[in-house]
Design goal:
8-stranded parallel β-sheet; alpha/beta; 318 residues; TIM Barrel
């Protein structure tokens, strides 16, 4: 289930950010078809994906795939996002009531569907009051264009503020939060996860492999971004941890990428990590994480390699 809702979603979420820029349309279709074969019914996208301002390249690819029929749309729990810059003129970004409405209608058109299962706010928008934001989403829900509302990149305070405002309006509010979360990036354990648990939000981690850092970069198992300057810097910064990490995965007899995903699946607040396969082979390989059971001893060892955070304020105060 997604958070406190009755919505059933797969334990892995298919991320589509590569569709268009790095994966051809034909291959994107193949990956989505294979996801359904594996009963992965949860797909995530965003209006800005494709990185051509205002075009919604990735959403268009998904829309054309839906149009192929075969019950594709009905089988998918579709999550997309609004907030990003979709044009040169004012009000083409953010979370004003105007932009939320325009962004939703544009996404529906590109996706060739009449409803979005989860429309997520891609980032906090401090300029608009919550009454404005919730009024806009209430209208979309009443019109049947949106079923649930989620957030992405929110802090614990923002989640609490948003859902208290929604409660005052007798509105369901946020049901999910999409956050950066992996073994090497655990900051959300301080405040975001406790807020999600308190308000019943399902957590959808993005970058579960740390951009490839946890995928076996030292052993050469993951080389996709190894030549990137930022990746080189990250490898050197974390080399000691990575050496211990890859050696421990070797002891377990598992690929680092699979253990990293499995670790997230063992975190009780996590609904579904987002995987971003570029090929069917990568998608197939990701399924191994669903089979891995990590013992308490193994989880403790991973915490030693990649120390986490205690809940705030105890993490930094008494």
């Amino acid at each position: 289930m997604l958070g406190r809702t009755g919505l059933k979603v797969s334990r892995l979420c298919l991320g589509t950010m590569n569709f268009g820029p790095r994966t051809t349309e034909e291959d994107s279709y193949a990956v989505m078809d294979r996801a359904l074969e594996h009963e992965i019914n949860f797909f995530d996208t965003a209006d800005v994906y494709g990185w051509k301002m205002g075009e919604g390249v990735t959403e268009q690819i998904i829309g054309r795939w839906f149009a192929l029929g075969g019950g594709r749309r009905d089988k998918v729990v579709l999550a997309t996002k609004c907030y990003g810059n979709m044009g040169e003129w004012p009000n083409a970004s953010g979370l004003s009531a105007l932009h939320i409405r325009k962004a939703c209608d544009a996404s529906l058109k590109r996706l060739q569907t009449d409803y979005i299962d989860i429309l997520q706010m891609h980032h906090v928008f401090r300029a608009a009051p919550w009454d404005e934001i919730w009024q806009a989403f209430e209208v979309l829900v009443q019109q049947g264009k949106v079923l649930y509302v989620g957030s992405s990149n929110f802090g614990g305070y923002h989640i609490a503020k948003a859902n208290e405002a929604a409660k005052a309006r007798h509105f369901l509010g946020l049901v999910s939060e999409q956050s950066l979360y992996n073994l090497n990036a655990r900051t959300i354990e301080m405040e975001v996860i406790p807020a999600c648990e308190e308000y019943g939000l399902g957590i959808i981690p993005w970058s579960p492999l740390g951009g490839g850092l946890l995928g076996g970069v030292l052993s050469g198992e993951h080389t996709g971004r190894r030549g990137d300057d930022r990746m080189k810097e990250s490898i050197e910064k974390n080399r000691d941890k990575l050496e211990k990490w890859e050696a421990f995965c070797g002891e377990l007899g598992e690929r680092p990428a699979d253990v990293a995903l499995a670790w997230l699946l063992h975190q009780k607040a996590v609904t579904a990590p987002i995987i971003g396969p570029r090929t069917n082979q990568q998608l197939d390989e990701s399924l191994r994480a669903l089979e891995i059971k990590l013992s308490e001893e193994t989880l403790k060892k991973l915490d030693e390699i990649f120390p986490g955070y205690r809940t705030a304020p105890e993490h930094y105060a008494w």
